Amino acid sequence: MKNEDFMFDEYDVVKAKRKLSDKVLKNSIGTVVMIFPEFLNDYMVEFMEDEKTLDILVIKGD
Question: Which of 2, 6, 14, 44 could join 34 in a cystine, given CB atoms 3.0 to 4.6 angstroms apart?
Answer without folding.
Answer: 44
